[in-house]
Amino acid sequence: MVIQMDGRNVVVKDVQVQTASSRSGNTLYKVRGRDVVSKQKFEASFKGDEWVQTVDFERRPVQYLYRDADGCTFMDRESYEQYTFDSEALEEELLYLGENLEGIYALVADGMPLGIELPATVVLEITETAPAMKAASASARSKPATLNTGLVVQVPEYLAQGEAIKVNTLTGEFMSRA
User: Fold this and answer.
1) Which CATH number does 2-51 carry?
2) Are the beta carbons of 143 and 103 closer than 8 angstroms?
3) Residue ranges per domain, the chain?
4) Topology of 121-177 in CATH?
5) How far is CA 29 from CA 4, 16, 24, 83, 112, in A?
6) What is the pTM of this model?
7) To 10 degrees, the CA torsion angle through 25, 27, 33, 36?
8) Rounded CA gap, 136 and 134, in Å?
């Protein structure tokens, strides 16, 4: 979602909802995001009855091309136009970006790229973890595993190096084998 606050466009990355326990209490919405122009982090709290102005934007399917010193470059799959984002603007998404990742969308308003939207799950390969235990069950303990993008997740003990796994992009948690 993109909202407008004090004349600035803000891409919303996370919303936390706090419901009051009393009858007269208001629900609070804590919003975290990033300013589109200045790339500054944005945090604010809103009561349940407050209005915020949303910004109309377009979701364009894009392909991840490469990463360099300037940032990450994506190509629009329909118009072949290229969008470059600063690495700081995509700091949370970078750990999920891999080659041939399908389902990425660029959020574009008035021809200006605002951010990217990742698919709900991504398939990544385990590059480093403790050796697999043959007697480990699926509900047993977990161990840390480093994936090919640098992301570290907790995985079940039966997984070994070189295996592909599905990771939830919203929570950053292991879901299943790929």
Assistant:
1) 2.30.30.30
2) no
3) 2-51, 58-117, 121-177
4) OB fold (Dihydrolipoamide Acetyltransferase, E2P) (2.40.50)
5) 16, 6, 16, 31, 27
6) 0.72
7) -100
8) 6
For 130, residues 6+ apart whose C-beta sits below 8 A from its C-beta are: 143, 157
Task: Tell me the per-residue pLDDT of 92-118, one tens digit each, with 9 for 90 and over.
Answer: 888 898 878 889 999 887 778 888 888
- The string of pLDDT tens digits covering residues 6-46 is 888 888 888 888 887 766 677 888 988 888 777 778 888 88
CATH class of the domain defined by 58-117? mainly beta
Query: Which pair of tokens denotes residue 158?
Result: 């039966």
